[in-house]
Amino acid sequence: MAHGVATVWVPVTDMKRAVAFYRDSLCLEVKSEGEDWSELDVGGLMIGLNAREDAQVSTSGGAVITFQPDGSIEEERDDLVGRGADIRGEISEHPWGRILPFKDSEGNDLQLYSPPKA
Q: Which segments carry the region annotation Disordered (predicted)?
């Protein structure tokens, strides 16, 4: 049985563009960078950027990576817009928290999530 997540793999079509997005737009630490594989650290979880030969920019979604913002979700939205992220809607309110959908440079679905206020 699984007891943790080792790596999240994200397909990319342009490694340099993808690394720049995750480094510059999301402010993640690049641990290694290569032509076919790059690794980023997200608070101890590794995101692997995988430049597969058959990767294509996604338009229909798939898996979603959800990030916890450092500040308020509104502040982080404004920062992401300023860094060129593709915001895909407004902040939505739910009993379990708030989310803001956006896409990375390769068309992968991402979100910001903040838990409900206690």
A: 98-118
